[in-house]
């Protein structure tokens, strides 16, 4: 079992930055690939970013490339999402997710076994 707890959401103005954190339970955290997803009101949950178990592979949605950076610290059982140059369209509830799948695909929600409770990010214009 893996339990995920997000933090770091809040209200920022367009162009600002936030860093989201997701703390994971369990000794096997380092063997899980991790992802960040977001869901805006009235929209489907969409892929934002993902990182491999080793941290050597990162993947981003086109909408956030060059602005967001995913990273992980396995010693701290934590994954981060650094969000820069935020736009109003980034407003959503952000969720972290974990998967133990050996042949995972970063984007689909069905690839992930565990989900956090979500943290609200609001970007004002």
Quick structural overview:
The protein has 125 residues and is mostly beta strands. The chain is built from no helices and 11 strands. The model has no long low-confidence stretch (mean pLDDT 94).
Topology:
Elements: E1 4-7, E2 10-13, E3 18-24, E4 33-39, E5 46-51, E6 58-60, E7 68-73, E8 78-83, E9 92-99, E10 114-115, E11 119-124
Parallel strand pairs: 2-11
Antiparallel strand pairs: 1-3, 3-8, 4-5, 4-9, 5-6, 7-8, 9-10, 9-11
Overall description:
It is a single chain. By secondary structure, this protein is mostly beta strands. The protein has no helices and 11 strands. The strands form 2 sheets. Strands 2, 4, 5, 6, 9, 10 and 11 form a 7-stranded mixed β-sheet that branches. A 4-stranded antiparallel β-sheet has the order 1-3-8-7, with no helix packed on it. The relative contact order is 0.31.
**Gyration radius over CA:** 13 Å
Sheet having the most strands: 7 strands, mixed
- Give the H and E element order: EEEEEEEEEEE
Structural class: mainly beta
Runs in which pLDDT lies below 50 for 5 or more consecutive residues are none
What level of helicity do the residues show?
Answer: under 10%
Number of strands: 11
Shape: globular
How would you state the average pLDDT, rounded?
94
Number of helices: 0
Distance, first to last CA:
40 Å
Note the beta-strand portion: over 45%
């Amino acid at each position: 079992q893996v339990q995920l707890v997000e933090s770091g959401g809040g209200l920022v103005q367009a162009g600002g930055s936030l860093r989201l954190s997701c703390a994971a339970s369990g000794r096997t955290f380092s063997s899980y690939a991790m992802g960040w997803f977001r869901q805006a009101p009235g929209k489907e949950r969409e892929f934002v970013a993902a990182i491999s178990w080793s941290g050597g592979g990162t993947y981003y949605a086109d909408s956030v490339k060059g602005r967001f950076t995913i990273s992980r610290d396995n010693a701290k059982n934590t994954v981060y999402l650094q969000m820069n140059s935020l736009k109003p369209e980034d407003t959503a509830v952000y969720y972290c997710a974990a998967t133990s799948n050996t042949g995972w695909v970063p984007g689909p929600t069905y690839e992930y076994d565990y989900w956090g409770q979500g943290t609200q990010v609001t970007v004002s214009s």
